[in-house]
Specification:
Keywords: ATP-binding, Cell membrane, Membrane, Nucleotide-binding, Repeat, Translocase, Transport. This protein has 505 residues and is α/β, with parallel strands linked by helices. Helices cover 32% and strands 25% of the residues. A hairpin with a 5-residue loop joins strand 11 (256-264) and strand 12 (270-279).
Length: 505
């Protein structure tokens, strides 16, 4: 099916999110829509999907003008969408989520859950997913939840399929699997719009690339274009794609010392198994591993979010185990959680309010239980400018921002106070190249200021670029700790459980 957008314009108040955008996607084509966070990519696709109504422009399918009053109309016309922020109901099972809105019924209107389960299994088997139809979505890791979103879209035989930042929560292996699925769908004739800001993915899978900046199409490129050329089109300037840093000047003592750390879940499962780590002031320890091998629980144990923790987490002579999250944050620990939407932000609060979530008792912003609005507004405006947070104002609800701009709010909050330890889980997940450059510089600057830094990432390029030393986790334990310049191939084998030939870090 051929998709054509003509002159699409969408405004939010004085903000022009889409400015007379023209786009054509041919049948059996993967068309990448590349751009910074807040460039208008997701807004454009939400117009296509019927979630937003454009002020101007037309949508055509096979040269026929469409009128979508909502997502139901779009789906009926053959359009499917995998959303950046999951459209799932946590208390429903996988099968219930997939059948929602397209319910199979038996006699007397009873839901045919067996048919829904079979349908989930059939689609999952077709594309190599391992998903339990009866699992509660709220209990699934974010990577598996993304698979459920994909199954939802694929289960309805969409002729035009939109993937909105689909790899933001996937591991490198899962991303490669998704690339294969997209190619398979393309070869079967499906038209695919792939929204992303990840240059490697675009060059690997796209047939054509359209670049959007500040709501306008600024150019088209072939997949053979260099990363530098694509990044410059996205940002409007030359972008430094490699991390520039001096050799670390780590202190001989102090910082963070973790010994015999274990985390055992309520059902007796050991998810962190006897971990020892040292992170000295002035160095970055990067933690690598396939998602689900204990990295999340390790971070949660350090910042006080995990239960069933034994061992010691010593920060400058004080043991953090058993302390509240508030006490740990007040001790100078900055924390960027891996899931900003669930754990990093309050969507209904303003950008300004989210920038002081962990400083609610700070006299600079609060007096007698009342927020000092002028001080908060001035602080928020400075952070918005410094971190290039794309928002209409400091009072805008943070939940209305793009995913990358939400991440910038979290980073800005955590790095805008004195720190004794900075822990960042997936710090650039869902963030564009320009913002990645800035965040990486901030992390290196924290290291150079003498802060011990832990970075957990499933992106091996990020691990290799930032880590002065790299700890690799597998099944809850540390396989080994190696120098930051260790080749990707070696790290990949370690992530599969293989011991390094010689541990030199």
């Amino acid at each position: 099916m051929k998709l054509e957008l003509r002159g699409i314009t969408k405004r939010f108040g004085s903000l022009v999110a889409n400015d007379h955008i023209d786009l054509v996607v041919q049948p059996g084509e993967i068309h990448a829509l590349l751009g910074e966070n807040g460039a208008g990519k997701s807004t454009l696709m939400n117009v296509l999907y019927g979630l937003y109504q454009a002020e101007e422009g037309e949508i055509l399918l096979d040269d026929v003008v469409q009128r979508f009053r909502g997502p139901g109309d779009a789906m009926a016309a053959g359009i499917g969408m995998v959303h950046q922020h999951f459209m799932l109901i946590p208390v429903f099972t996988v099968a219930e989520n997939v059948m929602l809105g397209h319910e199979n019924t038996k006699t007397l209107g009873a839901l045919d859950l067996n048919a829904a389960r079979k349908h989930v299994r059939d689609v999952a088997q077709r594309f190599g997913f391992e998903v339990d139809p009866d699992a509660l979505v709220g209990d699934l890791p974010v990577g598996v939840q993304q698979r459920v979103e994909i199954i939802k879209a694929l289960s309805r035989d969409a002729k035009v399929l939109v993937f909105d930042e689909p790899t933001a929560v996937l591991t490198p292996q899962e991303t490669d699997e998704l690339m294969g699925i997209m190619r398979q769908l393309r070869d079967e004739g499906t038209s695919i719009v792939f929204i992303t800001h990840k240059l490697r993915e675009v060059r690997e899978v796209a047939d054509r690339i359209t670049v959007v900046r500040l709501g306008k199409i600024v150019g088209e490129a072939e997949p053979t274009a260099s990363n530098g050329e694509l990044a410059s089109l996205m940002v409007g300037r030359a972008v430094e794609l490699t991390v520039v840093k001096d050799a670390p000047k780590a202190a001989a003592s102090g910082g963070l010392t973790v010994r015999n750390l274990r985390v055992v879940t309520a059902d007796g499962t050991v998810v962190v198994d006897d971990v020892d780590l040292d992170v000295r002031p002035g160095e970055i320890l990067a933690v690598a591993g396939v998602q689900g091998n204990g990295q999340t629980e390790l971070v949660e144990a350090i910042v006080g979010l995990a239960e069933g923790v034994t061992g010691t987490v010593d920060l400058d002579g004080a043991d953090l185990v058993g302390k509240s999250v508030r006490a740990i944050l007040d001790a100078g620990v900055g924390f960027v959680p891996e899931d900003r939407k669930e754990d990093g932000l309050v969507g209904g609060f303003s950008v300004a309010e989210n920038l002081i979530l962990d400083r609610s008792s700070d006299s600079a912003f609060v007096s007698g239980g009342t927020i000092k609005r002028a001080a908060l507004t001035a602080f928020a405006r400075d952070r918005i400018a410094e971190y290039d947070i794309r928002t209409q104002s400091a009072s805008t609800p943070v939940g209305t921002l793009s995913g990358g701009n939400q991440q910038k709010v979290v980073i800005a909050r955590e790095m805008s106070r004195p720190l004794k330890l900075f822990v960042a889980a997936q710090p650039t997940r869902g963030v564009d190249v320009g913002s990645i450059e800035f965040i990486h510089k901030q992390i290196v600057a924290a290291r150079d200021a003498g802060v011990p830094v832990i970075v957990v990432s499933t992106e091996l390029d990020e691990i290799a670029a930032l880590g002065d030393r790299i700890a690799v986790m597998y099944r809850g334990g540390i396989v080994g700790i190696v120098p930051g310049n260790t080749p990707r191939e070696v790290l990949g084998l370690m992530m599969a459980g293989e011991q390094p030939a010689e541990e030199t870090a």
